[in-house]
Predict the structure.
Amino acid sequence: MNIIDIHVHPELEDQDYSLTEKMIGLAKRYGVKHICLLGDVLHFGYDPSEEQIRKINDQTIELVEKWSDFFFGFCFLNPKHPEEFMQQEAGRCFKNKNFKGIKLEVAVNARNKHVEKVMRIARNMNIVVLLHSWSTEIIDNREHQSDPEDIAYLASHFPDVKIIMAHVTSARERGVLAIKPFSNVWVDTSGGQPIAGTIEYAVEKLGSERILFGSDAPGRDFSAQLGKIYGSNISEYAKRSILGENARKLLGITDG
């Protein structure tokens, strides 16, 4: 089974690649064929500057170029920045064909008007937007936190943009039900340790085709996160879909 992990964060201080090489070795040990790097998005805090955004994306570009057969990248943006800067930064990242989407973290809530700038860029470039979401934890205050209902609000206003809501293991039933009506929203399985019934519930309500495997490595262990899928009481078809086929179709990954 060719596993694609769409939710991994490299560490910005890994200057000699030792941590990256260790992570690649562990991933391959468990059958992971490709990893999507989202950037070390909290390295500079919740509201990174333009210069800090460039540094984070510089690392992703470097790693994707060095391990082009293994890594894909997402371009990290802060919606508070001017639209012109974000367009330029997205264009810079997407010069590399192995970039597959835009990553947003917690600079603003998904309902914030600033996010509309990012969604316009994504729509014009026909690329996916992956947003942090959580329903059991508040990050400092409501301004920064996007709950599943906020992702649903955004999806309703941009039905022609493909969205990935991160951390369904933390959003759980609430998150699944919030985004269920919106066919332009997928979920990833990152966000916590395995909890019995979570994946089964998501498959029942959404269908296995809208679920993507994400580990949140290196903060989470590949083996435990894969165990969420392998240990779930779902069909083999559903497991294959979640572990790789859905990401392959959504992100346009064409190799074997």
Notes: Residues 100 and 146 are 22 Å apart (CA to CA).
